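so my prof wants the structure for this chain in the tokens format not the other one, which i didnt know existed until like an hour ago. anyway here's the sequence
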Amino acid sequence: WARPENTSVNYLDETHYADFAAFAAAFAERYRGRVNDIIIWNEPNVSFEWGQRAPDPAAYTELLKATYARAHEKNPDVKILAGALAPNLAPPNSTDAMNDLEYLDKMYQAGAKDYFDTLAVHAYGWKAPADEAPSPDRVNFRRTELLRDIMLKYGDGAKNVALHGIAARHYVEIWRRREKCGAHRRRLERPSALDQSGDAGGTHPKHNRRVRLVRENKLD
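here's what i got, hopefully its the right format
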């Protein structure tokens, strides 16, 4: 009943914003003292998350306006988090996504400032170095600083920023390789009772090659 037939589960039109707000308010009241933060939507600047529609920061701001007062009426202590935007470099007028910096700026233009308590952000570093400087044409960890700059631009610096998501594919892969290398090294330092030769665990050619590489410090 809450969405047209054959639409995505992420679809929410403005005629049902009041229903969403009522649910959020009931949730805030029921879990007062246990759940202190409620994030309104996830990555609304991506078509997939916005019900397979073009991202619309003004419409999202209307959702914040509908929800904020209702939730605080039922639970004055609750914190309403906005944003949780997907960092991206989508070109202008794309229907698949909207650049997160542009989206946040347009949220403020639509009057979002008074309808959220904290900005939720996603810090996706991907393969960029962790300390790479922020730049509008780069998706990296420090891109969140540019979102903060937009908050300051609109006089919203008193609010906190909450890290809602973090990802770094490159460093995770390096960590996994180092963990594997460390496991082989530990086996090498503690040979099993079945193999006192120092080859730590068998005669399989692949295994013995790994042991040799560990010994020679060539496996990273």
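also thought this was worth mentioning. The CA atoms of residues 57 and 103 lie 6 Å apart.
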